[in-house]
């Protein structure tokens, strides 16, 4: 089945011309549709994160065309030495290439938001969500590394940043220009491991890694301020050695600006000050691969060909250069953005489970109205 | 005469680093204590310090391994297994990444007390799918670990020894994955003794004393605790008239003895199995010989267990065992040092 399915690679190339606002609106509509179909789901995450994720894919990250099948592969078993068929969903983010970026998706409860985005960008087929939350499917409710767009298994929250740090360090050791971008939720800043990771990122001057945080101030038990506050988040992160920007998480220009500035600061030759959108790498930079992403070198050697800009890897003696600090964008967001009906459920917005037929009907009406608007 | 080797892992790690340019060492503020200081000084660009933050260190190791590097984590066994268990299971175990976890101070080898004594690490890591578990019993096996782990597709946990380590096995007979060492093969055996780690040296003291009393003993040393499928072990127990004794530097729950019991039950081998180890108890800070005697992990405890299994007194006491030891020219247990850096 997957063999005969057309790959969405060609349409992915056209994606940057799409407007973030348009994509974000379509993400919310699609997530609402599947929340209704499943009689519940993670809806507020689409409200808060749609612009962040769309901006990352459209204006921040440099990714090649999707290498994944339009129809998601069924689950092929857990990874093990005895299972050569196991795979990750990273190929939906393009091939691995020294000049291309990598995307690490940490709060995988947002999986439906990511799947919807991949569909809107043509990286995943339009019918991929037929398999959402179905037994035997990789399009899981809470994503794992086999799920489309996922590269690591991050459902135990707060673990992906450290793994992304290892990937970024490896890329620096190999002298690669591509960067690592991590999407996180603010709740993950309650985990001690997140702070261990920031300490290590700063200490080892891992400046080729950027973090976008959906700061929607919500978590499973309710408002974060009531459950366990993480504020002042920006000050805490700065004290840990990160370069921090706080922006309106629904404003694509504000979201993209810190990443663009960092690329210019790092002297990335592929980014010009006047660029509106990141330049896609030339086709030959992708190694002309259609379905076989280049694998890492069989025996990588640990030569710090690029960076850190100053100081030995084992211990900074002086202040790190600005381009060697981990970059953090705190995106302040509204967990009900675009779906005002949700506000009635505050402060518990984490998972929408319809309490009555009337409530379900109200969301159904919203979806129908939305579709009317779109047509 | 048994040779004692000083810091065998330290030299071996430097050698291994020269041969494998993708090998990295990750440390958590116990670099010299885990004999990784030589590698750090020789290959500073391949050594990464993570401070006392093991959860994050395991995640970084996972990321590096995904990119084709070979991270060798060095810290105490308790801080690899108990403290960051979820990170180990999810970031490294699930994706079957080639991260090598070199854990020092197994069981009661340290006077550092309960916080430093890994008495449950085998039990915890046996429960993680994809994990391979190796345990060193002597200097030859300490020196075998890196090459053995290199050939394994997936994460490897090594219960490693440091400092003064006796060489019980010939230097040219390295550890072979999944294969027990037959140290003694008695005719028509009365008992099978299955030992691991530092308890093998104790068993090598007890077995000759038992044999001198006319007890025929088959003795096997186990260094691969997972996968646990060497048929020699169950065959030896099946052939032993009175059954078997397992002796290990670990809780009796979840380690070597438990693994043997599972195999015996599944294969329907109706033999008794006495498990020597920490009997569902924590230990405390004291010297290794003191703790081995207190918790019944030494040669005399093995003799007493043999008497229980046979149902007869063998008239062997500590003096006999000490004589055996002196004849072999080795008293490494006396070298436990309470001043070792922790």
Features:
heterodimer; A: about 375 residues; alpha/beta; Rossmann fold; five-stranded parallel sheet; two-stranded antiparallel ribbon; 10 helices; 7 strands; about 30% helix; globular; B: about 350 residues; seven-stranded mixed sheet; 14 strands; about 20% strand; Transketolase (chain B); Transketo_C/PFOR_II (chain B); Transketolase_C (chain B); Transketolase-like_Pyr-bd (chain B)
Structure description:
The complex is a heterodimer of chains A (375) and B (342). Helices cover 32% and strands 9% of the residues of chain A. In chain A, a hairpin with a 2-residue loop joins strand 4 and strand 5 (222-223). Chain A has a single domain (9-374), classed as Thiamin diphosphate (ThDP)-binding fold, Pyr/PP domains (Rossmann fold). Mean pLDDT of chain A is 87; it is low at 1-16, 278-298, 303-307 and 309-316. With 375 residues, chain A is α/β, with parallel strands linked by helices. Chain B has 342 residues and is of the alpha/beta class. Chain B has a seven-stranded mixed beta sheet with strand order 3-2-4-5-7-6-12, with helices on both faces. Chain B has a five-stranded mixed beta sheet with strand order 9-11-10-13-14, sandwiched between helices. Chain B has a two-stranded antiparallel ribbon with strand order 1-8. In chain B, helix 1 packs parallel to helix 7 (139-150) and helix 8 packs across helix 12. The interface between A and B is large, with 46 and 41 residues.
Write the layout of secondary structure elements.
The complex is a heterodimer of chains A (375) and B (342).
Chain A: H1 9-14, H2 20-37, H3 44-60, E1 102-105, H4 111-120, H5 160-173, E2 180-185, H6 192-203, E3 209-215, E4 218-219, E5 222-223, H7 224-227, H8 233-239, E6 243-248, H9 252-265, E7 327-332, H10 357-374
Chain B: E1 3-6, H1 8-19, E2 23-27, H2 37-42, E3 47-49, H3 54-66, E4 70-76, H4 77-81, H5 85-93, E5 100-104, H6 121-126, E6 132-135, H7 139-150, E7 156-160, E8 164-167, E9 181-184, E10 191-196, H8 199-212, E11 217-222, E12 224-226, H9 231-239, E13 244-251, H10 256-267, E14 273-278, H11 288-294, H12 299-310, H13 318-327
Parallel strand pairs in B: 2-3, 2-4, 4-5, 5-7, 6-7, 10-11, 10-13, 13-14
Antiparallel strand pairs in B: 1-8, 6-12, 9-11
Helix pairs in contact in B: 1-7, 3-5, 8-12, 8-13
Pfam family, one (chain B): Transketolase_C
Keywords (chain B): Thiamine pyrophosphate
Cofactor (chain B): thiamine diphosphate
């Amino acid at each position: 089945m997957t063999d005969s399915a057309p790959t969405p690679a060609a349409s992915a190339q056209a994606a940057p011309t799409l407007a973030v606002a348009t994509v974000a609106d379509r993400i919310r509509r699609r997530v609402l549709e599947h929340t209704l179909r499943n009689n519940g789901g993670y809806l507020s995450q689409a409200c808060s994160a749609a612009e962040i994720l769309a901006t990352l894919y459209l204006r921040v990250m440099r990714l090649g065309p999707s290498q994944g099948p339009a129809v998601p592969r069924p689950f092929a078993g857990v990874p093990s030495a005895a299972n050569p068929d196991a795979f990750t969903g990273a190929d939906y983010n393009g091939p691995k290439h020294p000049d291309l970026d990598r995307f690490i998706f940490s709060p995988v409860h947002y999986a439906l938001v990511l799947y919807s985005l991949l569909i809107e960008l043509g990286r995943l087929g339009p019918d991929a969500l037929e398999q959402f939350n179905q037994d035997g499917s990789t399009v899981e409710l809470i994503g794992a590394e086999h799920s489309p767009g996922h590269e690591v298994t991050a459902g135990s929250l707060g673990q992906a940043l450290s793994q992304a740090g290892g990937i970024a360090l490896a890329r620096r050791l190999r002298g690669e220009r591509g960067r690592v971008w991590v999407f996180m939720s603010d709740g993950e800043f309650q985990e001690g491991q997140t702070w261990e990771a920031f300490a290590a990122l700063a200490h080892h001057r891992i400046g080729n890694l950027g973090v976008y945080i959906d700061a929607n101030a919500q978590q499973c038990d309710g408002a974060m301020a009531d459950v366990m506050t993480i504020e002042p988040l920006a000050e805490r992160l700065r004290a840990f050695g990160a370069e921090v920007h706080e922006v309106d998480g629904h404003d694509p220009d504000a979201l993209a600006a810190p990443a663009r500035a960092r690329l210019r600061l790092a002297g990335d030759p592929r980014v010009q000050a006047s660029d509106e959108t990141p330049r896609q790498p030339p086709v030959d930079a992708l190694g002309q691969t259609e379905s076989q992403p280049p694998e890492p070198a069989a025996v990588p050697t640990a030569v710090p060909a690029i960076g850190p800009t100053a100081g030995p890897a084992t211990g900074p003696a002086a202040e790190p250069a600005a381009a060697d600090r981990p970059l953090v964008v705190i995106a302040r967001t509204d967990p009900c953005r675009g779906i005002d009906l949700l506000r009635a459920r505050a402060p518990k917005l984490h998972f929408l489970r319809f309490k009555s037929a009337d409530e379900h009907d109200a969301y159904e009406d919203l979806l129908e109205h939305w579709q009317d608007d779109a047509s | 005469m048994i040779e004692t080797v000083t810091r065998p892992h330290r030299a071996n790690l430097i050698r291994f680093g020269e041969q494998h340019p993708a090998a990295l060492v990750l440390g958590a503020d116990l670099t010299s204590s885990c004999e990784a200081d030589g590698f750090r000084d020789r290959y500073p660009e391949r050594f990464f310090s993570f401070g006392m933050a093991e959860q994050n260190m395991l995640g970084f190791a996972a990321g590096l391994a995904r990119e084709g590097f070979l991270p060798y984590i060095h810290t105490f066994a308790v801080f690899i297994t108990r403290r960051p268990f979820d990170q180990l299971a999810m970031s490294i175990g699930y994706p079957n990444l080639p991260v090598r976890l070199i854990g020092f101070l197994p069981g009661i080898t340290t006077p550092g007390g309960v916080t430093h004594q890994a008495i449950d690490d085998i039990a915890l890591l046996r429960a993680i799918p994809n994990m391979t578990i190796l345990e060193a019993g002597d200097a030859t096996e300490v020196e075998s670990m890196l090459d053995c782990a290199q050939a394994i597709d997936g994460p490897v946990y090594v219960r490693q020894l440091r400092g003064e380590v006796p060489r019980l096995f010939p230097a040219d007979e390295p550890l072979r994955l999944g294969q027990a060492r037959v140290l003694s093969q008695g005719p028509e055996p009365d008992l099978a003794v299955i030992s691991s780690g530092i308890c093998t040296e104790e068993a090598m003291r007890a077995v000759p004393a038992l044999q001198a009393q006319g007890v025929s003993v088959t003795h096997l040393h186990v260094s691969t605790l997972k996968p646990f499928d060497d048929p020699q072990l169950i065959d030896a127990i099946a052939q032993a008239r009175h059954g078997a004794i397992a002796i290990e530097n670990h809780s009796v729950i979840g380690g070597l003895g438990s693994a043997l019991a599972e195999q015996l039950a599944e294969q329907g081998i109706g033999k008794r199995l006495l498990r020597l180890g920490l009997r569902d108890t924590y230990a405390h800070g004291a010297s290794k010989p003191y703790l081995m005697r207190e918790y019944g992990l030494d040669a005399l405890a093995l003799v007493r267990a043999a008497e229980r299994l046979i149902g007869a007194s063998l008239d062997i006491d500590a003096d006999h065992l000490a004589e055996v030891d002196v004849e072999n020219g080795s008293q490494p247990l006396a070298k436990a040092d309470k001043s070792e850096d922790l």
